[in-house]
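This section describes the prediction task in plain terms. A model, or a person checking by hand, is given the sequence of a single protein chain and must write out its three-dimensional structure as a string of tokens. No templates, partner chains or ligands are provided. The sample shown here is typical of the held-out split.
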Amino acid sequence: MFRSIACGVALLLASCQSAPPKTFFQLSPEAPAHKAAQTRFFETKDSDALLSASAAALQDLGFHVEECERGVGFLRATKERSAMESGQVTSRVFLLLLSFGYFIQPIDLQQQIAATIVASPANSDGTRQEVRVMFHRVVWKGDGAFERNYIPPGEQRMEMIRDPLVYQQFFAKLSKAVFLEAFTL
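The expected answer:
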């Protein structure tokens, strides 16, 4: 009896779900360009050395490796930085003066930048490896009146970093690291 009531409630709840919009699974027109900026191919069989070189390149850029799964070719690293920009501070001061101190505009205080790398064989014999890196950041906002370590709940945003220069800088360092790894073996 209890089992049939539980199944009935589960079916009722499942029927209340709405379908995702038709455009939910469609890629944006910019998606191929973003993937191209995030991906490079390396002529090597040694996926472990490639992952080590990726970790070294990220560490050169100020990241700390937090997770690495060599068996699946996965690496995640993060770094924290101030997110405050001079334009935000200037506009905040201007708005504060115009509103006679009544309106305080929140500003970006702190950010955590994360890099996720996936390395996998690009061909059947494993002589070519594909490396894809994705950078994103979480930015915390505040009014600046509190100490820097205070993060108000719910005042954050997450965004992908799409600047091609960030990816070019990483792959330039990775190419050098792969080259150096090849000569130290």
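For orientation: Helices lie at 2-15, 31-38, 47-60, 86-98, 164-184.
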